[in-house]
Amino acid sequence: MPQTKIMKKQSHPTLTKRPAEQRGQANHGWLQARFTFSFGEYLDPDHMGFKSLRVMNNDTIQSGGGFPEHPHDNMEIFTYIIEGQLEHRDSMGNGATIEAGDLQYMSAGSGIHHSEFNPSKTKLTHLYQIWLQPNKRDGEPRYAEKPLKDLAKKNQLTLLFSGDGRDGSTAIRQDAEIYFGRTENGQSLIVPASSSTPHAWIQVIAGDVTVFEENLSTGDGLALQGAADEFSIKASSDSQILLFRLS
Questions:
Q1: CA-CA distance, 243 to 200, in Å (whole number)?
Q2: 226 near 13, Cβ under 8 Å?
Q3: Count of domains in the chain?
Q4: Does the N terminus or the C terminus of the chain have fewer Cβ atoms within 10 A?
Q5: 8 is a domain residue
Q6: For the domain that residue 42 is a member of, what is the CATH number?
Q7: To the nearest whole number, what is the mean pLDDT of the chain?
């Protein structure tokens, strides 16, 4: 008698949505900011981060505005430019103008100083700045840039950063995987299973997607607790997302 293959039933993760309109906010004139997690003067004990993900700031910087030189240490810092440009200088000797569609990485390690400005006289800079807490302290600072308009393919997840630097990704100081996804209306992104990073955070940069039964739009975030199995993200409009697999 032929054997019947028994399909393993996927476990359903615990979902916690962070709607865009419920995020914290600040208006400093030259800077308008929305905070997914507590940051600066915005403190919400219910939103202090998720796993190693500590900061998810959505900033709009007016022309000529920016952050003068300031220090960081022991933090993994990622900056994704949605619109406009960001002029960067740091104590490692790096100087660059990051363009829309590009992602910058700094591992602050034992300590760095850097500055960030909108170099335009007329246009806004719109970006996400994201911090992960490292799993190793006081390492040598690192820097990298990811030109996503060249790397990211439509209707696929592109692995950008990982703890082991596999498949052309940049190694980071955390047991985490960071993917960028660009998908067309009606298409789906397949998130691979991962037992070593069984939790996930999805941040919608633009568009509309559905994950399990949750509908997400621009600016929304979603925590998935216990998402080790493969799952899908379906787009109901042309969309862009950042996906974090976390330990």
A1: 7
A2: yes
A3: 1
A4: N
A5: no
A6: 2.60.120.10
A7: 95
